[in-house]
Amino acid sequence: QLAQLIGAPEWLEDPRLATRQGWVDHLEDVIRPAIEAWASTYTRAEACAKMAAAGIAAGPALRSAEVVADPHL
What Å distances lie between residue 7 and 10, 16, 49, 52, CA to CA? Predict the structure, then answer.
């Protein structure tokens, strides 16, 4: 779902990413840069909503000031 959502359908055929270990091995050089590039075009809320709509669990990471100001925390 993630590969399709962020516009990287080639990941589905990439032998480097065929296993969980492959995702770990290529997190920093392939996966994270692609996700960050995709997410940079949305607000945190928009990116999370798009991921949720695709069936991917996601939530925004709060900045320090947001954590302090959050009434639930």
Answer: 9, 17, 16, 16
